[in-house]
Amino acid sequence: MTSQSQTDSINAQPTTGHKIAAELIGTFALVLFGVGAALMSGGDYVATGLSFGLVVLVMAAAMAHVSGGHFNPAVTFGAAVGGRLPWSQVPVYWLSQLLGGILAGAVLFFLMQGFEAYDVDEVGLGQNGFGDQAASGYAVGQAFVLETLMTLMFLWIILAVTDRRARATGIVAPAAIGMALAIIHFASMGATGTSVNPARSIGPALFAGTDAMAQLWLFVAAPLLGAAIAGFSYAFLFGKEPLEVDPLA
Questions:
Q1: Residues 11-32 pLDDT 10s
Q2: 227 band by pLDDT with thresholds 50, 70 and 90
Q3: Do 90 and 80 meet the contact criterion of CB atoms below 8 Å apart?
Q4: What is the helix, strand, coil percentage profile of the chain, to 5?
């Protein structure tokens, strides 16, 4: 017969519905506040980079105990490749993250209409870009390598600070991950606008026009490639963590 304490323990485990809510809300917040800061500040480098980093720090601290706090299809993919997340959960995470990103894109598009002079064709919606669709004119080949490399570094950091051997409990892991994302923005935002997250790119692009949509392939493929490399290489480079309940699962 199951004791009351055992029943409470089982009931305390996050359900699939709880994980969907956490990933949807977390990704929504990431796109809303990160891309929103870029739009409202006129593309201020420091404000935008810090906004992306801080929102990940806050939302990861708030939601990590529910879903692991991915808010990014590339993070989910890297976690699955690295054995931190069952593959059966990947579609649920991805759908939640994409929906959160798209909802945030829709909200941002609506909010920007409050500016009388706003024209999405002229100003955009904080979408990522390269070549003649980006203010930087950054070349496609370098853009692909940049996004792959930045995502690779991001995933190595995430896998490291959530490694059980690191004992990065409490706020330490979310803070490291959030600051890593801010640093990544400082190092790449002037080239592509910084994606390292397909959901962040897809959400705004859906409302920014066909040109933005045509460039999405890079901001999906490159982050997933970088995440896959990180997932495959982490244990080889740094060793395997002990077999216990994983904080990313």
A1: 578 999 999 999 999 999 999 9
A2: very high
A3: yes
A4: 75, 0, 25
Instruction: Assess contact for 77 and 152: CB atoms under 8 A.
Output: no
pTM (two decimals): 0.91
pLDDT digits (tens, 9 = 90+) for 75-126: 999 999 999 999 999 999 999 999 999 999 999 999 999 999 999 999 999 9
CA atoms of 10 and 5, how far apart (whole Å): 9
Would you state the torsion angle of the CA atoms of residues 67, 173, 27, 130, taken in this order, to the nearest 10 degrees? -140
- Enumerate the domain spans of the chain: 15-116+125-238
**Which two three-digit tokens encode residue 64?**
């990590």
C-alpha separations of 24 from 2, 44, 81, 190, 239 in Å: 34, 27, 22, 28, 32
- The two tokens of residue 209 are 């026009």
* Chain centroid to CA 176: 14
In CATH, the number for domain 15-116+125-238 is 1.20.1080.10
- Per the listing, tokens 């519905």 go with 17
Q: Give dist(CA 189, CA 193) in Å, integer.
A: 4
pLDDT tens per residue across span 36-48: 999 999 999 999 9
Q: Residue 132 and residue 134: Cα distance in Å, rounded?
A: 6
